[in-house]
Amino acid sequence: MESFRATPTFSFLLFLFLSPSTPFVSHSRPKGLYYSPSSTVTTFDDFVMPASMPSSPMAISPAMPTPSMFKKKKSTNAMSTAASYLSAVSEADARARVNKGSPGSTPALSLSSSVTTSSEDTVLEESDDNASGLYYPAVPPTSEQTFNTVHTEFGHCGNENYRYTSHHTPGEPIAGVREQDPPYYVLLTTYLSYILVICFGHIRDFFGKRFKPSAYRHLMVRNGYAALNSDFDSFYTRRLKTRLDDCFSLPVTGVPGRTIVLLDRYSSDCNVSFHPTGTKTRALNISSYNYLGFAQGNGACTDAVEEAVKRYGVCALGTRLEAGTLDLHQQAESLVARFMGMEDALIASMGFATNSTIIPALVGKGSLVISDEFNHASIRFGVRLSGANVRMFKHNNMESLEKLLREVISQGQPKTHRPWKKILVLVEGLYSMEGSLVNLPRILELKQKYKFYLWVDEAHSVGALGPHGRGVCDYYGINPRSVDILMGTFTKSFGAAGGYIAGNKNIIDRLRVSAHTGPYTEAMAPPVLTQVVASMASIMGVTMLPEKPASSSLSLLRSPDSTDNAITGLEATAYPGTAPSSALPPWMHLPQSLIDGSDGEMRLRRLAFNTRYLNRALRKLGFITYGNDDSPVVPLLLFHPGKMAVFSRMMRTRATPIVVVVVAYPATPLVTSRVRFCLSASHTKEDVDCVIKACDEIGDLLDLKHGDGERWPLEEIISRAVELVNMKHVP
Amino acid sequence: MSGSAATLEPLFTFLNYSYNTFETNFYKIPGSAVVARYVKSSHQNDPGRTLLEVILIIFAIRTLLQSRTRADHSGKHFIQFDEKEIDDLVDEWIPEPLVYPLDQKEQADLASVPVIVGPNGPKPKLASGKTVVNLASYNYTGLAGNEHIKERGIETLRKYGLGSCGPPGFYGYQDVHHQLEQDIADFLGTEAAIVYSQSFSTISSVIPAFCKRGDIIVADRGVNFAIQKGLQISRCTVRWYDHNDLKSLEQVLEMVERERRKKKSPLTRRFIVTEGIFDVDGAMSDLPKLVELKQKYKYRLILDESVSFGSVGRTGRGLTELYNVPATQIDMLVGSVANGLTSGGGFCAGSEIVVKHQRINGTSFVFSASMPALLAVAASEGINILRNSPSILSTLQENVRAVRSILDRADYIAIPSHPASPMIHLYVRLPSATFLMPQTPATPFTPSLPSLAHSPTSPSFKLSNPLSVAPRDPPVFDAELEERLLQDVVEECLAQGVLVTRAKRLNQELNPVRPSIRLALSAALTKKESEKAANVVKAAFTKIVGKRR
Ligand SMILES: Cc1ncc(COP(=O)(O)O)c(C=O)c1O
Quick one: B235 and B110 in the same domain? Predict the structure, then answer.
């Protein structure tokens, strides 16, 4: 392998000639790494009992004795838990029996379902074979430690040193690390490799059309129909992207938590089509948007969701304005408002649609939208629907923004020079391809001066940033109410789906009535709402109200004033505040660790540690990364499109397989193809070590270490991780 | 003389030096020797050409730079200001408020939105504590609250967690999504299908995925809001035909073809966009005729079955099943999983090529997280149930017939919906002359017979302008009055224990939509219950609208 060091001339050849069939990128993997759902070594222990039990009338009970409460031990010291292991097994058997019996009760409906049924608990799915090192924690738990998560979903990490608090130190520059350019030969060969691939593609098309016309038929005019997608339009897809297609859209199964199970596939026609091999591979997941690790099939939030499915079913049956509004929607909305520190909030059933259907309700003809050049597709979609004029400013560049503001305000509308009705500036809190944080303090200064309205899309930052997980405002210590509209999604940090808009009551009520979401889109499903409520409440912590009216949730629904009163009782406007217990559905039983917020805090702090550690470690290894040290999205620059594929394949075929996301043009500028890591609270330090080691090896092979700045050897980085994370500044 | 030469000496050395460095550096660039040789030889052959080429290059660079600056300074309309003036202008500028507060009517509207406590279903409990019969929520097949689906949902939850935590391209495409896509394709009989995570965002992504600038879409004047948004995004050329009038469609197709021949423009993609059962009024398309026209004129058909999927046909497969038209005849068949299967999301079914294209070009598919696994499984399970229990749809149709037989005869109600549609729109019928709205009597239900709501029968029929979305003679109605009356009806029904809702619209629709009450019948109610509820609605109309006179 060492001889495989990529020379500049070699690197773009990689792109051309490494098809998935070369051994190097093969999908056949050494035996023993397969994920085999066989026996178990995971053990139940006594149920974890919280130290104190709340005595509130609210039915918030201690940890429920659910089977998900178990801890895992190395099989070597499983002696003491042999009894509990047996009881776990018998319990699981009992569950399986119950499950098998029940569908029979609905004969008409019990026809074999299309999806593979499996009612075993995760416990019984664990594999004996820990060759990939993903199943058991590297560090066995001490006698005081109990972990009530499944290690493959949410890693066990008891070391309190591996924690950090995400915050902004006033005075520190916001721009993040300086964006570095690679050496010229890298840029040159990158361009060359694109040119080569394009030429090659055209040659193939030229001959293909002559010798294999059947393969091109769907791209040509055919019996009076124009091609759905002409050969010209699809050139990029067919001739460039197809080469990398084995790195995209990999089918997966199971919980997208700390690890993820890939459904292996192969292609016998150079990535045109894929076929499942029937095998599965469990891989370390550093790609899913699972910042706080709420993607779990076990745990208190999931228990709450299960209860919601039992009570509410899976659907709200309608649009919000047409008989699809549930009590849960209102509870969730008031909780979101409180979480964000805003007066009111609105929930939509899809994050994309939150942008694309609500922006048009705020701006229209005669208004101007100023948008960051790297804004997400959903924002652009919404802006285009709104009919407002659009101008872009350079990514996160405040001078560019100010210059533009001065120009547009002084010039007014095009041609007529009438003043703009209003100007809306659209930015993201954390840019998911760049890892950069918005310069919110500066934007707010500009807002004062130029009187525009501000919309911050916190899809990636909410939950992931700030000492209390409330997003960029929390991170910078800024009053959220100085922003007009905080938008975000539940897909990322909360392990749910959908999005929200938070703002003052005026705005939100207007949007309820005038945005497309109200009358036309389906309302969010009850299980999703429950996940939102449970995960958010656990981040906030829950405050018991001194005396709880029996139907508090009902009164909360009908009159918004009484809600305010109920909350005013205790620090109404305190931000970042806790969730009043009246804001939760009365049937939702959360265990103590979620009520006191300790679970949420652990998640926030673990994420912050992992984030800072990986960002800094990669730079210390000599890689070029973009973005802020506190950004859980870490883009590592690869430049060459060919290296993208190789990087992704090499990561996936390691002894400990790692799945990564690689992105290239058109999602990024042409030359800056990159791999993007998304950290999670569910990762342990050892997992991050594993990623760093992999990057180090592959980085050497692919000639990726072009960063300047001081470098540390790998061992030093791993051993001095805590120090590295806590350093004020790492160049 | 020599003095000036001496002073110029350093300049010459510098020039000489920089020329040398330039030359050596230039030759270091790979391929530069070729360029140099080319320039030299061409200069030798024809010095004039060198000059011309240099001018050309300068010109090209200038235009390039100019086009960039033009974007900044909007060309000749740009006014030069100095900094002080700009500051003053900035100080002077007073923006409009971001939103205007709700007026009284809007506030009342918002306050009147029913809130359901606990599960929604055929008989939900409202926040007022009252249990009502639900004729408002979409639960055509009564799958809501199905115990088996719940059970499967919980199993899935334990195996997959809730969210998918990523877009389909980046590890968000789970086997359950694949399974659902296959189930839908199998169910409808198409090659493939693709699932989006919200039904509204499905068609507004599907249309722009295929239709680009220069392509032609011929669309119905009454298409729903999501389609309107899709058309807006796609930026293609849209031609309109009269609502659910296939004669008008044929005329427009004819006209487009003539235009193309006249202009000799190249063949572009052409689409007909319409709905199965129209969301605005419940009218139904005559699918066989539509398919015939599409094939005759070589258009592709984008059919939105958001209302008809899961609500008509023997087992709920929608219009294709009702009319016995193979779904493969429809190029892009879009439907709602949320409404049709009481789960979440939407789908587009079609050929492999159509689906594959969307996996890269469907904006809201590519850039949004895939739907929660639990909802995907619930939908798969829903299909399974529909497939195996045709009794569900026959119960639903029975309810539809029962309700229609009551409401069709009501004095103050006009119904534009197709007799088989379980989504029924109720207009106010005011017997006074001012509100003359031609109501075709509801045609008896025969699938082969098209129900043309505004079918022009007179020979003097003239085409509306296909370039404009507005019809030639738009229906006349007093929206404000009707809305008020309908809201009173809604409240009256609620007082009598029946939940109905006005069809809520934004007034951003391309054509004004006549206010209506939208009923959504359900197989989960018995015929008796449906009849009883329909009688309540009828009585409420009589009480509110009748009293008005
Ligand atoms: C900035 C931004 N906004 C909105 C979205 C869409 O969210 P969802 O995936 O929930 O539809 C995303 C998702 O990638 C995003 O990055």
Answer: no
